[in-house]
C-alpha cells in the first residue's frame, strides 16, 4: 500500500512538474526575446547619441527604454514567480508526505498488519523515491539563479542608461518661440577634466537670422566645439550664450530650444527603422505627406519609391543599405521637415567624394536660405558664399582672422596659406 501510494504520488508530482516547466520555459523565452530586442535597440541608440542630443529627445528615448525594460522585467518576474511557486509547493508537499508515510507505517505496524521485514522494505523503497523528488527540486535552483542573474544584468544596464548628466535639460525653463539671434557673450571653454587647456579663449560673437557663418582651422582649433556649444552638448566655462539678446541658453528649456535647431554632421545618424521613422524623428507629429515633400526637396523621394517597401523600407543597422550620399540626403530631408530657424553644418560633406559633395552642397544651399547657418568647414569650396568666415588658430588661440571669402584670400595669414596651398578644397 505504501509503495503504491509513493508511486502514485511520484507520477502526479512528475506531471505537475512537467506542466510547470513548459509554462516556465515559455515565459523565459518570451522574456529573453524582449531582452534581445531591447539590447539591439539600445545599441542602435548609443551609436546615434549625437542625433538624440541634437534633437533634444532624451526624455522620449528614456520613456521608450523604460517601457521596453518594463516589458522585460514583467516577463522575467512571471518566470521567477513560477519558479518560486513550484519550488515552494514541491518542498511543502514532500515535507508533508514524510510524516504522513511514517504515521501510516506506524499504524500498520502497531496493528500487526505489517511485519518487520516488510516495514524495512517499505522504508528502503520510499526514501530513494523521496530523494528523487528532492533531487528534481534541486535541479530547479540553477534555473532560478540564472534568471536572477539575468535580472541583475538588466538592472546594471538600467544604471548605465540613467547617468547623472553634466548638462540638464531645464524642462521648467523659458520656452522660446523662435531664434532671431545668438550671442557668444565673452565665453571661454575648457574641458572639465583638463581645465588648464584653453580650447576657446574669451570670445564675443553675434549670429543673426538670415545670415551665414563659417569656422575654419586646423584639427584641434575648436571648430567642432563651437557647434557643440550651440547645441549645448557643452556649457561655456565662463561667459554666457544669449538667445535673442536676452535669454541665457543655460536657463532655457533645452528641448524647446533644440526644436529650432537643425544639425547635419559628417557621419549621418541613421536609426534602425524605416525611412518614415527616421525622417519623422525630427518632427514626430509630421504627416506622411510632409515627409514625402521633405524627401522631394532633398532629392531622395525617387530612390525611396524605387524600393519594394518604399517609405516602409527598414534601413538596417546604421542605415547599411544606403550609400554615403543617400544617408546625407536623408539627414537633409529630416532638417527640411523640421524647418528650423538655425542650421548647423558640422563638416557635413567632408566624407563624400567630389561629385556627390557637389550634389549635396546644392541641397544644403537650398536648405539654408533665409535661415541662420553656422558651418564648420573642412573644405574651403563649401564656404565661398557665406557672409562671414572666422579663422581659428591652433592651441586655443581663438579667432585669428575674420571676413568674407574674397577678403580673407587676399590677406596674409592662415586662410590665404590654406587657399594657396589648395588645402581644404
From TrEMBL:
<feature type="transmembrane region" description="Helical">
    <location>
        <begin position="84"/>
        <end position="107"/>
    </location>
</feature>
<protein>
    <submittedName>
        <fullName>Multidrug export ATP-binding/permease protein</fullName>
        <ecNumber>3.6.3.-</ecNumber>
    </submittedName>
</protein>
<feature type="transmembrane region" description="Helical">
    <location>
        <begin position="6"/>
        <end position="22"/>
    </location>
</feature>
<dbReference type="GO" id="GO:0005886">
    <property type="term" value="C:plasma membrane"/>
</dbReference>
<dbReference type="InterPro" id="IPR036640">
    <property type="entry name" value="ABC1_TM_sf"/>
</dbReference>
<keyword id="KW-0378">Hydrolase</keyword>
<feature type="domain" description="ABC transporter">
    <location>
        <begin position="182"/>
        <end position="421"/>
    </location>
</feature>
<feature type="transmembrane region" description="Helical">
    <location>
        <begin position="119"/>
        <end position="141"/>
    </location>
</feature>
<comment type="similarity">
    <text>Belongs to the ABC transporter superfamily.</text>
</comment>
<dbReference type="InterPro" id="IPR011527">
    <property type="entry name" value="ABC1_TM_dom"/>
</dbReference>
<dbReference type="Pfam" id="PF00005">
    <property type="entry name" value="ABC_tran"/>
</dbReference>
<dbReference type="InterPro" id="IPR003593">
    <property type="entry name" value="AAA+_ATPase"/>
</dbReference>
<dbReference type="InterPro" id="IPR039421">
    <property type="entry name" value="Type_1_exporter"/>
</dbReference>
<keyword id="KW-0547">Nucleotide-binding</keyword>
<keyword id="KW-1133">Transmembrane helix</keyword>
<dbReference type="InterPro" id="IPR027417">
    <property type="entry name" value="P-loop_NTPase"/>
</dbReference>
<dbReference type="GO" id="GO:0016887">
    <property type="term" value="F:ATP hydrolysis activity"/>
</dbReference>
<dbReference type="GO" id="GO:0005524">
    <property type="term" value="F:ATP binding"/>
</dbReference>
<keyword id="KW-0472">Membrane</keyword>
<dbReference type="InterPro" id="IPR003439">
    <property type="entry name" value="ABC_transporter-like_ATP-bd"/>
</dbReference>
<keyword id="KW-0812">Transmembrane</keyword>
<feature type="domain" description="ABC transmembrane type-1">
    <location>
        <begin position="1"/>
        <end position="156"/>
    </location>
</feature>
<keyword id="KW-0067">ATP-binding</keyword>
<dbReference type="GO" id="GO:0140359">
    <property type="term" value="F:ABC-type transporter activity"/>
</dbReference>
<dbReference type="InterPro" id="IPR017871">
    <property type="entry name" value="ABC_transporter-like_CS"/>
</dbReference>
Amino acid at each position: 500500500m505504501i509503495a503504491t501510494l509513493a508511486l502514485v504520488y511520484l507520477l502526479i508530482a512528475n506531471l505537475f512538474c512537467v506542466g510547470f516547466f513548459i509554462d516556465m520555459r515559455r515565459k523565459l523565452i518570451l522574456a529573453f526575446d524582449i531582452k534581445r530586442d531591447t539590447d539591439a535597440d539600445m545599441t542602435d541608440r548609443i551609436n546615434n547619441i549625437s542625433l538624440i542630443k541634437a534633437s533634444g529627445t532624451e526624455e522620449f528615448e528614456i520613456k521608450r527604454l523604460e517601457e521596453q525594460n518594463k516589458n522585460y522585467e514583467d516577463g522575467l518576474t512571471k518566470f521567477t514567480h513560477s519558479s518560486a511557486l513550484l519550488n515552494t509547493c514541491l518542498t511543502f508537499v514532500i515535507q508533508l508526505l514524510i510524516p504522513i508515510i511514517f504515521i501510516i507505517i506506524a499504524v500498520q505496524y502497531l496493528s500487526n498488519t505489517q511485519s518487520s521485514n516488510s516495514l524495512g522494505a517499505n522504508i528502503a523503497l520510499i526514501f530513494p523515491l523521496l530523494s528523487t523528488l528532492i533531487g528534481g527540486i534541486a535541479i530547479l535552483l540553477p534555473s532560478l539563479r540564472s534568471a536572477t542573474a539575468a535580472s541583475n544584468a538588466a538592472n546594471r544596464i538600467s544604471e548605465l542608461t540613467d547617468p547623472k548628466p553634466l548638462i540638464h535639460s531645464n524642462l521648467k525653463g523659458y520656452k522660446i518661440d523662435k531664434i532671431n539671434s545668438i550671442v557668444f557673450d565673452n565665453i571661454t571653454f575648457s574641458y572639465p577634466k583638463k581645465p588648464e587647456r584653453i580650447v576657446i579663449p574669451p570670445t564675443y560673437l553675434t549670429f543673426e537670422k538670415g545670415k551665414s557663418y563659417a569656422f575654419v582651422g586646423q584639427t584641434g582649433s575648436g571648430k567642432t566645439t563651437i557647434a557643440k556649444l550651440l547645441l549645448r552638448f557643452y556649457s561655456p566655462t565662463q561667459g554666457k550664450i544669449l538667445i535673442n539678446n536676452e535669454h541665457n541658453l543655460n536657463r532655457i528649456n533645452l528641448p524647446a530650444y533644440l526644436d529650432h535647431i537643425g544639425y547635419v554632421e559628417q557621419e549621418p545618424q541613421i536609426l534602425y527603422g524605416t525611412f518614415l521613422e527616421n525622417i519623422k524623428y525630427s518632427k514626430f507629429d509630421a504627416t506622411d505627406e510632409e515627409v514625402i515633400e521633405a524627401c522631394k526637396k532633398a532629392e531622395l523621394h525617387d530612390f525611396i519609391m524605387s524600393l519594394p517597401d518604399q517609405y516602409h523600407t527598414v534601413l538596417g543597422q546604421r542605415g547599411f543599405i544606403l550609400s554615403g550620399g543617400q544617408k546625407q540626403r536623408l539627414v537633409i530631408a529630416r532638417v527640411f521637415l523640421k524647418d528650423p530657424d538655425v542650421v548647423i553644418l558640422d563638416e557635413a560633406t567632408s566624407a563624400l567624394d567630389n561629385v556627390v559633395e557637389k550634389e549635396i552642397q546644392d541641397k544644403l544651399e537650398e536648405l539654408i536660405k533665409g535661415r541662420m547657418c553656422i558651418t564648420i568647414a573642412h573644405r574651403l569650396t563649401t564656404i565661398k558664399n557665406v557672409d562671414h568666415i572666422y579663422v581659428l588658430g591652433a592651441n586655443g588661440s581663438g579667432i585669428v582672422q575674420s571676413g568674407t571669402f574674397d577678403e580673407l584670400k587676399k590677406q596674409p595669414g592662415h586662410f590665404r596659406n590654406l587657399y594657396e596651398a589648395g588645402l581644404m578644397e
